[in-house]
Amino acid sequence: MASENVTPVSTPNQSILVDTNNTTITSTPKVSNNSTVKSTFSVFRTENLHPAYHGCVHISARINNNLMDNYRICCRYAIRFKNKYVVKQDIKSKTLEAKVSGTTSSLTKKNYAENLLKSLNKLPLPFCHACDNPFGRLHVCLLCVYFGCWKEDHMRAHCKEKTHNFAMNFQNCSVYCCECEDYIYDIEFEKIYKSEQDKFYQLLLQSQNPNIKYLCCPEWLPTEDEAEKIRNNSVLLRCSGLRGLRNLGSTCFMNVIIQSFIHNPLLRAHFLGDRHNYKLCKNTLCLACELDKLFAQFYSGDHTPFGPCEFLYVVWKTEKHMAGYQQQDAHEFLICASTFSTNLFMDLSLDIKDSSMKKPNRRRKHKKDIENDHNDTDDSIANDVESVSSLNSSLNEEPTITLADCLNRFTVPEKISEKYMCNNCNSYQDATKQLSLKTLPPVLCISLKRFEHSHITKTKIETMIKIPCELDLTPYTSPSIIENSKREKYNETHPNKKIER
Q1: Chain region(s) in the chain for CATH 3.30.40.10
Q2: Is 420 left (phi over 0), alpha (psi -120 to 50) or beta?
Q3: 40-208 placed in CATH 3.30.40.10
Q4: Is the CB of residue 87 less than 8 Å from the CB of residue 204?
Q5: CA atoms of 83 and 202, how far apart (whole Å)
Q6: pTM for the whole structure
């Protein structure tokens, strides 16, 4: 997964050239006769911080002042370009206010906002330099002036051709490392991103009220002595967890999903980062507002159990089929229509047992069988211990099933019973179906099919599933499965020249 925090760097300005050497640049301004202080760039990269603050090893080796300056320019470009619509809406409200009131202050606000919009309109439209597409998840190369789209793989092709390893996502200013093949985090980029955001918010506030003053709290960094005391005298505190959830009457299904939401790092960063403030939302019934309240409650430090009454009420109002105290399905609650405005969650329903596994023989007992059971009660009591021991042995003999086994069964090729018309030979041919993951989502939701349905009844599958702490989904993606399929076909036709994985 990509890191929660965003990091940006690049050069959309057409007049900027970047020095790509690996020299380390530091300045030593004089403070006193016997002391020197490194530049702000060097202070950020201090040994007192955990290595995780400085992203991957590749960015640590190549970072320099030019790269940081390029990142700052790109952040400024991306943030201001994305917020042009916000300023336009602000001008509309200012124009209406000026027409209604006609006061000098309202006209001043309108003129200030219009001047800001004029400067934003001078920003050129970013587009892919390969296909001229302004969409497709644009990225900016950090080592040269190049925009490339992610959808058609033009950005990665440029990085591979020019050996430029770093690119910035124009949408969220996150940095992509081509050697790591993932988005990375670095505290220095994070500081620049937040600084550029604060500067733009200051411009927005001044456009709303030119007399307002924007106060910025100075950042605190520990000295070497303070960092030494923290390292030597710090004590790990016990993880006490968050608040418990009260059952409001057959609401276990809702509590399960709420717990998943509360511990999801992406949702946590979104709501605790004030991306959706319920106090500013104008909607009457809003699930996002209730989620914002839930996160505030769970991370308030209070450890008493919490009852999500308001959240349940809004669910009942927005999802009529969920109203009432009858039992509901947690998976159905997760995918209900109004839960998410955009589908950031991908859902997989996995079979626990293989279809070829034998099912237990559970036939109905007739009257004669019941009478025989009644007559043999004494014998059954005498054999209780033996039955329990045989039950334990049968449970121990049950094969262990892992989540990888379920995913393997999900992606295994299946032969289709009906033949399909082939467009090349115009005849019906045998066909197979194989499922795979084309693109990986930010969050993957996996639901295990715990019930077996028969003509008469349904039974719950109590089989234990081993779930790893880390899950590599590469073998289940479409490119990997296509590559494996080609390898298998080649090995079948060339038995003497087999290609190993």
Answers
A1: 40-208
A2: beta
A3: yes
A4: yes
A5: 13
A6: 0.47
What is the CB neighbour count within 10 angstroms for residue 196? 22
pLDDT in tens, 1-12: 333 333 333 333
Q: Are strands 345-351 and 443-449 parallel, antiparallel or unpaired?
A: parallel
Distance (Å, whole) CA 90 – CA 205: 11
Alpha-carbon gap, residue 394 to 405, rounded angstroms: 21
Let me know how many helices (H) and strands (E) the chain has, helices first: 18, 15
Q: What is the DSSP string of 59-119?
A: HHHH--HHHHHHHHHHHHHHHHHHTHHHHHHHHHHHHHHHHHH--HHHHHHHHHHHHHHHH
Residue pLDDT, tens place only, 208-254: 666 666 666 666 777 888 878 888 888 877 777 788 999 988 888 88
Q: Which of 18, 344, 4 is nearest to 174 (CA)?
A: 4
Structure tokens belonging to residue 161:
């051709």
CA distances from 279 to 166, 265, 282 (A): 39, 23, 8
Q: How do 465-466 and 401-402 pair as beta strands? A: parallel
User: Using CA atoms, how far apart are residues 420 and 375, in angstroms rounded to an integer?
Assistant: 59
Residue found by looking up tokens 């490194």 in the block:
38
Question: What's the residue count for the chain?
Answer: 501
